[in-house]
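Posted in: Structural Biology > Protein-Ligand Complexes

Title: Requesting predicted complex, 6-O-phosphono-beta-D-fructofuranose in pocket

I'd be grateful if someone could produce the 3D structure tokens for the following input. Sequence and ligand are given below.
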Amino acid sequence: MAKKNKRLLITTGGGDCPGLNAVIRGLCKRAQHEGGWTILGSVEAYTGVLKDPIEVVELTNEKIAGIHVKGGTILRSTTKGGPFTWPVLNPDGTWVAVDRSDELIKRLKDLKIDAVVSIGGDGSQKISQKLFEKGVNIVGVPKTIDNDLSSTDFSFGFQTAVQIATDSFDKIVTTSESHNRVIIIEVMGRNAGWIALYTAVAGGAEVCLIPEIPYDINEVVRRIENRYVNGRGFANIVVAEGARPVEGTVVARKSDETGYENLRLGGIAHQLTHQMKGAGCKADIREAVLGHVQRGGSPNAFDRVLALQFGVKAFEMVLAKEFGKLVTYKNNDIVTVPIKNAIAKYNYVNPKSYLVKAAKGLGISFGN
Ligand code: F6P
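-- Reply #1 --
Done. Output follows.
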């Protein structure tokens, strides 16, 4: 009797990240070897399944050829809502969140989907867990440049983001040195300081400010002033977007975009300039906010290799019916953990870790 053709649906949700396409390719390639599977992709996370007409594409060999080199996601993505908090705009411009999860599940059945692989960060994996609890055969693949998922030593995209930030840092050093300036480089990471810490160490910053170690502005200024003799000198500060002073809060604002629930971080570099001036810093200061450039472009080799492995493993988890689980990278191995454990806590920089100690040993001040 002919083997029944099975159908797997991939989604990419949340902020894009270098390596998403590599996961898609890894999964599709492994499925081709297995045979008997049709791999589909929902456009813009679950939106493709929930919209009318639906937007679900077949990921043929032609569609996935060479995509591991490409940044972003060929399936597109969204950070606005999901099946449990589907944003519906009111006539007055406000919006409400509507639960469309039952409808999603019905549509998945109508599409004859046997399994779903959700590639996404903590928000997407919280959705995965809820769908799993409602009976969906789902496997999660962690992605984020922030590296803040506790279950995996690294998420793909992080190393690429660090490389982009480090390349920018190297370019900034030559100009801060030429002009006797302090240049503050603001990097992403939400409430985790990983990108900032790695960039500060790789680039050779004087100061690194991260959310996990609230800073004292007087300490920051003291370290900077040390760098100047007779008005000559320069310094570079790497600040994570989620950093905050000891007595202060994160610089963030609520978004007015329909369906966007997260706080939008950003602006700490500018605030820091004012704080430094207020604390008596005499140096000329400039700010460079790296922003979305950190998420753009081609994944580096490390992230490609990690993402391709995640894709292959995610398919094998489907074959083994390891649903409700997330593929992760632990101790140089690709393993699986229950999604509910993975989303229970975040991965933040431990101020007592050796990397922080080494950074201090290199003369980097955390402003504490
Ligand atoms: O989580 C990834 C990330 O790039 C964060 O570092 C950043 O704070 C956020 O996404 C930006 O989100 P958006 O692209 O929605 O503005």
